[in-house]
Specification:
Blueprint (H helix, E strand, L loop, with lengths): L1 H17 L10 H16 L10 H14 L3 H19 L2 H4 L3 E5 L2 E4 H27 L1 H10 L4 H31 L8 H28 L16 H19 L2 H12 L2
Antiparallel strand pairs: 1-2
Length: 270
């Protein structure tokens, strides 16, 4: 249960970060969503053996994190928690792809290891990009931006409701955990039967709580439209930022900056 409470705190911390005031926070949410989409498309379009060519995208994220005030420790913690999923996806690549593609001195590197490292790097870049987007925009504003960009309203609303339902689920789980701990006099035993009963009760409680929340929303005039206090208005600064970001990202995708830098340093040596 401590892990659930920790996850709840992390979600609340994302909302706290989104309430900040920085150059990135003041951009229109639609600009940040489109920029993130371009970033993701550029990263996932690389060859399966590409590693060095994707490193400049990490520098791009570091700059955005610095401008937006997103703590690197928070992002690294999230990457460490979720990275096992990426490891499980590519762990068998070195076994099935043993074709040698390069030599590092006496060490022969196979394509499987390169593709495995490429998967890990893509995962880190894409997850970090999404965390930075939410931490500098807020999930409500992201959903509203998606709706304004033409995403079906039902999809945007369902995403928003899912995000809010997570808080309801965790809150009910915390209450049940505290009630069980008080009745168990500190004993930590939890057999499968008790666990299944608690999960069933948690599902029933959250469904009932969700229905009450939905009725309360209907009583307050909810008609399926996302409304937040922030007004969406694209300025010249937003358009300029979007164009500059798109040019930089596309240039990093088309030009292997790491290779060019390496060649430049090599040519400068006597």
């Amino acid at each position: 249960m401590a892990k659930i409470e920790s996850a709840f705190v992390d979600l609340s911390y994302l909302d706290t970060l989104a309430a900040g005031d920085s150059v990135v926070h003041r951009l229109d949410p639609r600009v940040k969503v489109v920029t993130t989409a371009i970033f993701l498309l550029c990263v996932v379009s690389f060859d399966k053996y590409a590693i060095a060519a994707m490193l400049p995208f990490a520098l791009f994220l570091i700059v955005i994190m610095g401008l937006g005030g997103v703590p690197a420790s928070f992002v690294l913690k999230k990457l460490a928690i979720t990275s096992p999923f990426a490891v499980m996806i590519g762990i068998f690549n070195p076994i099935f792809d043993q074709h040698i593609v390069l030599h590092l001195g006496p060490l022969a590197v196979t394509g499987g290891w390169l593709s495995f490292l490429s998967i890990i790097l893509r995962f880190c870049l894409t997850v970090t990009a999404m965390l930075v987007l939410i931490a500098t925009t807020g999930f409500n504003a992201v959903c509203m931006a998606l709706e304004r960009l033409g995403v079906p309203k039902i999809f945007a609303v369902q995403m928003l409701m899912l995000y809010r339902y997570i808080f309801v689920l965790v809150e009910e789980g915390q209450r049940m955990h505290r009630a069980r701990a008080l009745r168990a006099f500190g004993r930590r035993g939890l057999d499968m039967k008790t666990f299944a009963h608690l999960v069933g009760q948690l599902l029933l409680r959250t469904i009932d709580r969700g229905q009450r929340i939905h009725l309360a929303m209907l009583c307050r005039g909810f008609d399926g439209t996302i409304r937040i206090r922030q007004q969406l208005r694209i300025t010249g600064r937003d358009i300029g930022t979007l164009l500059l970001s798109a040019i930089v990202l596309i240039a990093m995708r088309q030009l292997n900056l790491a290779l060019l830098l390496g060649q430049l340093l090599t040519d400068s040596l006597p």
